[in-house]
Design brief:
Helix content is 12%, strand content 56%. The chain is mainly β and 503 residues long.
């Protein structure tokens, strides 16, 4: 019998490995137009402008552009249509939600000393969602590669004596101890064996070779994915105006990341003679992260021209993961159909690790037509291939994952262009965004078209924006064995309403 030892709880286990895959890193690298309605209406092209609460989080020098202290927030309605593509089969699901996306304040202090070159000092705070992970999607398609290969991959080389249930043992006990002693791979092999999907070549304790019990020439796959959560950045800002020409600023950013993904995978269409068929494999992961980064920015004022430069330091975020798994299968035993359910009812808790999201540099230009309006252009570059995952004490899995990230990700080049035209107290806005995909496998760029409307009532302002954003991301069905790709194409319609009060 397996050698059990005392465990604190029967409901959770701690593992030294981590559960993150390239799929999850893809979500963490994402960003959207989530800010004030004025910012969104001009596609976020505010790097050389400032004077907007969301612009503080783009270029920290922008807070000293404000002439008065200000407070405001933004409510956003988001409608998302997600088209899943898997082996040329297209499936669409829709979802919508209402969120409070942005809130901020800036406090302006004018220096009345004529001998000082520093004519204005500002401090502020702005909090907005960098990414919203809320998404409901589905992919369907036929494949010649089955989920049995996922379990065979993890079982390969593992002695068979780890996988059976011995007298007095239960599914939760064995699943838990395998996680403690052998890690994630042994748990996957155990699930595959207990669901009758794989068998050892020989039923001896030291056997390390396995074969599949599933017979097929092709199988039908259905994957339902429900993700929730956010990546929120809160910027603590300080900025100053030097000789009415140069704005300088710095941000200390606090990052909060919460990510939940529930995936329900179903495989059918096996041969009529297959001993095992109709496999339902459910996986859930939750990630909780906190971290920090810094930003340094400048805006140079030359008559009607504005030039901006911003450096975003890498984001360092510490993350803790939790996972749950359940598997169902049907198999034939002595001519009878048996419906097997393997539900360990265990939450796996993994040791904390860190992700370093690469630095970004933004160059901005704007031209101001007096009080009539303006045009603005931002260009930024970020090399997603430099993403690094680490854990204190080292981790072979994380090192391997970091090494393959440059094969998946490349440089992100983003261009934002926006304009604003004023009719007395009413402003009309529009903008476009073009962003090369972080993933090398996707050649199409993410694109957005934006429009906005603003009303200035003197002591307060009301702004409305409309954003149409299209983006594409590619994922693997599973991390190993069944790694065939599928693509999710998102069509996002976003309407934001901001109200700001001048203090």
């Amino acid at each position: 019998m397996r050698n059990f030892y005392l465990l604190i709880s029967g409901l959770l286990i701690m593992q030294n490995a981590v559960s993150q895959t390239v799929n999850d890193v893809t979500y963490f690298l994402g960003s959207e137009l989530n800010g004030s309605a004025r910012y969104n209406g001009m596609a976020g092209a505010f790097g050389a402008l400032g004077g907007d609460l969301s612009a503080i989080s783009i270029n920290p020098a922008g807070s000293s552009v404000f002439l008065h202290s200000e407070f405001g927030g933004t409510l956003t309605y988001n409608s998302k249509s997600v088209e899943g593509s898997y082996f040329n089969t297209l499936t669409t699901k829709e979802d919508n939600h209402l969120k409070f996306d942005q809130i901020g304040a800036v406090f302006v202090f004018n220096n009345n000393n004529p001998e000082s070159p520093w004519t204005r000092i500002s401090t502020g705070i702005n909090s907005h969602r960098v990414s919203k992970f809320e998404q409901n999607s589905r992919v369907l398609g036929s494949n010649t590669n089955g989920v049995d290969n996922y379990f065979l991959y993890f079982a390969d080389g593992l002695p068979f004596n780890n996988l059976p249930l011995y007298e007095g043992e239960t599914i939760p006990e064995v699943y838990r101890v395998l996680g403690e002693e052998n890690g994630f791979a042994a748990q996957q092999a155990f699930l595959g064996y207990q669901a009758y999907i794989i068998n050892p070549r020989t039923f001896t304790d030291d056997e390390t070779a396995y074969y599949s019990n599933v017979e097929y020439s092709s199988v039908d796959h259905e994957l339902d994915i429900l993700t929730k959560g956010l990546h929120r950045k809160t910027s603590l800002n300080f900025s100053a105006l030097f000789k009415e020409i140069l704005h300088l600023g710095v941000n200390l950013n606090i990052h909060k990341l919460e990510y939940h993904s529930d995936q329900k995978f179903f495989e059918s269409g096996q041969n009529p003679s297959s001993p095992v068929y109709n496999i339902d494999f459910e996986n859930g992961i939750s990630s909780y992260g906190e971290g920090a980064s810094a930003q340094f920015g400048a805006i140079l004022r030359l008559k009607k021209i504005r030039i901006g430069l911003t450096y975003d330091s890498p984001q360092y975020i510490d993350i803790v993961d939790e996972t749950k798994q359940t598997i169902f299968s049907n198999y034939i035993e002595q001519g009878s159909i048996v419906k097997e359910r393997i539900d360990p009812r265990i939450t796996n808790y993994y040791d904390p690790y860190s992700i370093k999201i690469p630095s970004k540099t933004t160059l901005s230009f704007a031209y101001v037509f007096g009080g009539k309006g303006l045009v603005s252009l931002d260009y930024s570059s970020q090399n997603a291939a430099n993403t690094v995952l680490t854990r204190e004490g080292g981790s072979g899995y994380l090192d391997d994952l970091t090494r393959v990230l440059p094969n998946t990700f490349g440089s992100i080049q983003t261009i934002k262009a926006g304009g604003e035209y004023r009719f007395k107290d009413i402003s009309l806005r529009a903008g476009i965004l073009n962003r090369t995909n972080a993933q090398k496998s996707i050649r199409t760029s993410d694109q957005a078209f934006t429009f906005g409307l603003g009303f200035d009532f003197g002591s307060n302002t009301l702004n409305l924006s409309f954003v149409q954003l299209n983006e594409n991301k590619q994922f693997q069905m599973f991390s190993e064995g069944l790694k065939d790709p599928y693509t999710l194409s998102n069509s996002i319609t976003q309407i934001s309403l901001s109200y700001n009060i001048k203090l």
